[in-house]
């Protein structure tokens, strides 16, 4: 009997040990040390280590050590930041029941390396895009590029960059190897640091089903909430869609899934929790439908907003005052005309004043088409004028009316300026576009959808010649067939197009190239 009891007891211990072992094998651990690469690998206390895909962070102790426990098996990207040091990223794969050691050696901040852009969005058509490695130091550097999948080729994948030099790297996509959309990340390795470049690729078929606008949400230094729109442009009825879970814990999306009827649109709200930002943010959201997905790029800056100065439009500081009719800088968070004629405007549906401006000073205005936000100037500054100019700064524009001389029925008459669905600008000089009153420019406005501010200037002379300038450079021209005064009663910006605006100017003459460049240099 004692032998039987002893045997049963031994079996119970064996089974108990087996259960405990299985539980341990379900998860893994990641640990390591963060040290100073320049200062003899001295430990760095207080460094923040983040698993990017999970948004989990740990802080190193006085010995520079960190540890993540209960990590599910898989491949993860970890980022380390510390005050006074260059942020560093590494990727590792962990296996159940194992402890993965991953050490980081940080270089002091202000290192002379710059990799831009940090995101390549190939969309549904592009097969080749570039990024650059800029060496701002006084000695050459060696680099290598790793971590990219087989459908990506990189050239040159390794090499040297001379002092004060720049190396352009070409990234090619083999679309034949893809059955749908894809996202990945490559690493540019320089010395002990790694610089990530994110890549998103969309399948070609999905563009026949939906559009997503805008394709870029720039939170800048001030925004905590922005929107984009999903539109069903297909012909097969309702379209079911969902948005992949954000890889950054600071991003929340609502709604994250839904069904949009044919021809209709759904607004998506993206919220940013700035308290979770450990550095400037560059990421993307994938809107998925059967057959593929479309990406929305998201960028945000952790830095505080630019300093706000005084009224940059005070009369004694304004560049090119001759023939100036009105000037709107928005610096006092209103539609006050900052020139002497006092043509003050009005705000509708609560547009937002923002700190993101062309020169980092004062205020700019954000108009959200989803909320039908627009500004109205209850005057017709160009009535009976054969020559005039309109100049303004714009960022993140979408298709729709940019500005228009509105009649009493709310229709845009000349002068009016549109961003068409065909990626082109149209200028309406007269109320009847079918009899010579419109110019269809060939310049593609997608060039301006790069997340930067651009100054747009339209000039018209007494011979009906209309010129389009971008950032002080003439890019297109046309001739109106008719030249008659429309029945407009006021000027409006926005309403049907989302955009950021700053420094709107109206002139009673066709500005010269020299005057346009003077305005550009004074406001950028």
What do these coordinates show?
The protein is mostly beta strands and 524 residues long. The protein is 7% helix and 47% strand. It contains two helices and 42 strands. The strands form eight sheets. Strands 28, 30, 31, 33, 38, 39, 40 and 42 form an eight-stranded antiparallel beta sheet that branches. Strand 35 (412-419) and strand 36 form a beta hairpin. The chain is globular.
Which residues sit in consecutive blocks of at least 5 with pLDDT less than 50?
18-24, 305-316
Determine the strand fraction and express it as a percent band.
over 45%
Q: How would you classify the helix and strand content by structural class?
A: mainly beta
Shape: globular
Backbone CA Rg: 28 Å
> How many beta strands in the DSSP annotation?
42
Estimate percent helicity. Answer: under 10%
Secondary structure topology:
Blueprint: H1 2-25, E1 28-36, E2 42-43, E3 48-51, E4 56-59, E5 65-71, E6 74-81, E7 88-94, E8 99-101, E9 104-106, E10 113-116, E11 119-121, E12 128-135, E13 141-146, E14 152-155, E15 158-161, E16 166-173, E17 182-190, E18 193-201, E19 210-213, E20 216-218, E21 225-232, E22 239-243, E23 251-254, E24 257-260, E25 265-272, E26 281-289, E27 292-300, E28 324-328, E29 346-348, E30 352-354, E31 364-367, E32 374-377, E33 388-395, E34 400-406, E35 412-419, E36 424-428, E37 438-444, E38 454-460, E39 465-470, E40 473-479, E41 490-494, E42 499-507, H2 513-523
């Amino acid at each position: 009997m004692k032998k039987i009891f002893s045997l049963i007891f031994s079996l119970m211990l064996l089974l108990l040990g087996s259960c405990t072992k299985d539980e341990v094998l379900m998860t893994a651990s990641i640990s390591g040390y963060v040290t100073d690469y320049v200062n003899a690998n001295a430990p760095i206390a207080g460094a923040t280590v983040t698993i990017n895909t999970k948004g989990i962070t740990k802080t190193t102790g006085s010995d520079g050590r960190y540890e993540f426990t209960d990590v599910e098996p898989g491949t993860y990207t970890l980022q380390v930041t510390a005050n006074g040091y260059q942020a560093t990223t590494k990727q590792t794969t962990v296996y159940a029941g194992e402890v993965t050691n991953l050490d980081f050696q940080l270089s002091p901040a202000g290192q002379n390396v710059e990799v831009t852009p940090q995101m390549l969005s190939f969309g549904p058509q592009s097969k080749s895009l570039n990024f650059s490695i800029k060496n701002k130091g006084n000695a050459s550097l060696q680099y290598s590029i790793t971590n990219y999948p087989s459908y990506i080729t990189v050239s040159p994948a390794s090499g040297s960059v001379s002092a004060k030099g720049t190396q352009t790297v070409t990234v090619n996509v083999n679309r034949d190897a893809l059955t749908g959309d894809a996202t990945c990340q490559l690493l540019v390795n320089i010395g002990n640091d790694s610089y990530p470049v994110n890549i998103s690729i969309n399948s070609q078929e999905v563009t026949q089903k939906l559009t997503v606008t805008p394709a870029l949400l720039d939170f800048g230094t001030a925004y905590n909430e922005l929107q984009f729109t999903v539109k069903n442009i297909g012909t097969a009825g309702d379209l079911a869609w969902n948005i992949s879970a954000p890889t950054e814990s600071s991003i929340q999306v609502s709604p994250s899934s839904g069904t949009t009827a044919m021809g209709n649109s759904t607004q998506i709200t993206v919220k940013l929790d700035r308290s979770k930002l450990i550095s400037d943010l560059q990421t993307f959201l994938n809107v998925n439908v059967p057959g593929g997905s479309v990406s929305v790029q998201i960028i945000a800056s952790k830095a505080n907003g630019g300093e706000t100065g005084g009224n940059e439009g005070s009369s004694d500081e304004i560049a090119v005052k001759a023939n100036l009719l009105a000037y709107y800088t928005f610096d006092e968070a209103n539609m006050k005309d900052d020139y002497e004629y006092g043509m003050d405007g009005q705000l509708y549906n609560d547009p937002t004043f923002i700190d993101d401006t062309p020169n980092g000073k004062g205020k700019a205005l954000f108009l959200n088409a989803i909320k039908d936000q627009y500004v109205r100037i209850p005057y017709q500054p160009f009535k009976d004028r054969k020559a005039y100019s309109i100049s303004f700064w714009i960022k993140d524009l979408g298709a729709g009316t940019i500005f228009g001389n509105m009649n009493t029925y709310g229709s845009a008459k000349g002068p009016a300026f549109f961003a068409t669905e065909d990626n082109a600008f149209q200028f309406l000089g007269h109320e009847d576009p079918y009899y010579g009153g419109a110019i269809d420019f060939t310049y593609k406005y997608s060039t301006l959808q790069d997340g930067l501010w651009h100054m747009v200037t339209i000039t018209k002379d007494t011979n009906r010649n209309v010129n389009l300038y971008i950032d002080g450079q003439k890019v297109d021209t046309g001739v109106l067939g008719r030249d008659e005064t429309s029945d407009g009663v006021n000027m409006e910006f926005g309403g049907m197009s989302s955009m950021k605006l700053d420094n709107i100017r109206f002139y009673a003459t066709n500005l010269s190239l020299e005057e346009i460049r003077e305005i550009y240099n004074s406001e950028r």
